[in-house]
Amino acid sequence: MNEKIKELADRLGICTFYTDAGLNTNEHNVSEETVRFFAEELGYKASTDAEVEHSLSALDKRRWQSALESIYVVKDKKIFDVVLSAEEAEGSLQLKLSKQDEHNDFEVSFIVVDTGETRTFAKKQYRRMTVEITSELDFGYYDIELITQNGTYKSVLAVAPAACYQPEGWDKKRLWGYSIQLYSLRSRHNWGVGDFTDLYNFVDICHRSGADIIGLNPVNVLGHCFPEEASPYSSVSRLFLNPIYIDIEKVPEFRPEDRYLVEAEIADLNAAEMINYGKVYPLKIKILQTLFQRMKQDEKRKKEFEKFCKAKGEDLENLATFEALYEDKWQDHWGGWRAWEPEYRKPTTAAIKKYRKEQSDRLDFFKFLQFEADRQLKLVSAHVKELGLKIGIYRDLPVGVGRDSAEVWGDEGLFLRQSGAGAPPDAFFPTGQKWNLGAFNPFELKARAYRPFIKIIRSAAEGAGALRLDHVMSLMRLFVIPEKDGKEGTYLLYNFEDMLGIVALESHLNKCMIVGESIGNVPDGFLEKIAAKNIMSMSVLWSERWDAGWGDFKSPYQYPKNVVASVGTHDMPPLKMWWFGYDIALSRKLGIIASDEDMYNNYHKREADRWKLLKAMDENQVWPEDNRRHGDYLYGEGYPEGLEEAVHRFMAKSNAQIFLVQPEDIFQVDKLQNLPGTDRDKYPNWRLKLPINLEDMENSLAYYRNIAAIKRER
Question: CA-CA distance, 170 to 213, in Å (whole number)?
Fold first, then answer.
């Protein structure tokens, strides 16, 4: 690779080499073409060698072109750099701070040290110095004003704690709870999909069973016009909630006759094994439109609604506008919002202003959906607090947002324009993953003082006791893939220390623990770095093995402590499916496994893995006393009775401070919730309901025995 191209890649944080995490690890050299492409994505021209030289020169000058950076994220030592003309540097300096949201200016004492670095531009010399604030400052965000004889310069100072929030005495706790897909909850009352009342009632089940945490799939708003595009990890905004989770019958404006009119439809949707989003969502929206009209006649509710809209401000206005426009245009404009007329492709045009005025009532309806969803989820959080669950709701923040989304439409300059997030091959997904999610431009994100990142963290942490950061490695690096097929991807580096500091600060401000989903291609030393910040990792039974997944299962006492442990995840086969190898047959049927020979090799490995699982259960004496295993269960001998109890007791024994059980394993589900790399034309992802109603769960023998097994160890 051309040395100048290599230098540009290093300066921009574009990786020119990476190693994947497949069972057979491969090394990848990134092409010069790929580096040039991503340099352009980041705003630096690189099509020719002359453009590369010009971009390197621009990077050299970048820091010298402003007195202060957009933000400084600091910890114990409140030190930041400043660039001033020699004339200003020799004069008097004054530093004023104002804590954001308090608006009270105050001066601080500080020390200035000249670094000796200078540059000359247009015959004017500039010096780089460091400023250390010696006054005590609380954790939080501060607006800075640096006043010199020539003017005032502004920035933001984020004073972060050394590590993320954890409750007092946390090191002595060993808790357990559930990991659920909210949509999958069945109940006699719901309308064909789990809702916030089901979640409220599930909190009661947790309380009675002694569980202290409920891990949720992302509950962010999805596309209004395409309800069948149901992946919770591809939202149109991570700032707002999915209206499908609204319990219609708990909306204050609901009347019993509203249900009578659609009783037959509800019965059919409720009885179905799979969620029919194409029928559930329109049915709910139809009734909610009636309830919205009633809400407008209630002065008290209307004032509460207006207060909510004011608090959510521009972000809510953008979401409502985007959804209304999409509803108007999707049938005539293929290709999402980028195919709309130019005057509608961003929210700041005169045409959008006019549209908002003309369609104000429609926009208010979309805002009403968020108003009611927010109210109902807040009731759940209040119920958690009332019952005293030690952690309560454990939210999930997706690593990215759909490229055809309100977030990207509302601020396209913040995101990479022609590429999206994905992942290289790893042990669980040997072909890699192309998620097509919008990814932040790291340079633009910092230029915005990380405000967009702060907003999505804060939105997800509100009312939650813990927050899972999907693909937490993205705080350091994110694998990005060009939209055009056939072009290779690579890793893009982010401002890791700054991102960690922001996460720690938001964790403390919201009193919310942080968990990092770290399954996949994890850089060397990464887990140690996030552990030092009190960010818990995730640990699944299938990955806690020796020899990179080929060896024996680790003993429960060999598990790390600062982790959230589970048998699997929504992307992995539940226990019964894994045992019979149904996932292998499915992958061969869909062509994910390329040949019969590969399929047979997978079966042979699974056979050995089953032996190793039985061996681990034997060695740790976790089989039910009244149901010891009766054989090796090989070659068609069936499913071992009590296996899920043994596995749950095994996991509950582990050192992990939190163990999450999946209802799918308790009730012996043998189908996947999600098969990565497929869409609904190949597999019904995100549609599988649990096989039992919430009202019957606690009376189930399987539930009773599995929870008893867990509580023996927790």
Answer: 14
Question: How many Å separate Cα 447 from the centre of its chain?
Answer: 22
pLDDT at residue 635 is higher than 60: no
Residue 95, token pair as written in the block = 């530093």
Q: What is the DSSP string of 330-393?
A: TTT-TTGGGGS-GGGSSTTSHHHHHHHHHTHHHHHHHHHHHHHHHHHHHHHHHHHHHHT-SSEE
pLDDT at 632: 74
Report percent pLDDT > 90 for the chain.
87
Task: Find the largest Cα–Cα distance for the chain.
Answer: 88
Give per-residue pLDDT as tens, 408-465.
999 989 999 999 998 887 666 666 778 888 999 999 999 999 999 999 999 999 999 9
Smallest Cα–Cα separation from 219: which of 479, 509, 463, 572?
463
Return d(Cα 456, Cα 552) in angstroms, integer. 40
DSSP letters for 160-200:
--SS----TTGGG--EEEEEE-GGG-B-SSSSSS--HHHHH
User: Using CA atoms, how far apart are residues 354 and 7, in angstroms rounded to an integer?
Assistant: 48
| pLDDT number for residue 433 | 78
Per residue in 128-162, pLDDT (tens digit) is: 999 999 999 999 999 999 999 999 999 999 999 99
Give Cβ neighbours of residue 568 (< 8 Å, ≥ 6 apart): 540, 541, 542, 574, 575, 578, 662, 665
Report the alpha-carbon distance of residue 460 to residue 514 in Å, rounded. Answer: 11
Q: How far apart are CA 100 and CA 66, in angstroms?
A: 22
State the DSSP string of 227-264: TT---TTS-SEEEEE-GGG--GGGSTT--HHHHHTTHH
* H helix count then E strand count, the chain: 23, 25
Which is nearest to 535 in space by CA: 116, 163, 57? 163
Instruction: Please calculate the CA angle 399-192-366 and round it to the nearest 5 degrees.
Output: 60
- Report d(CA 505, CA 287) in Å as an integer: 41
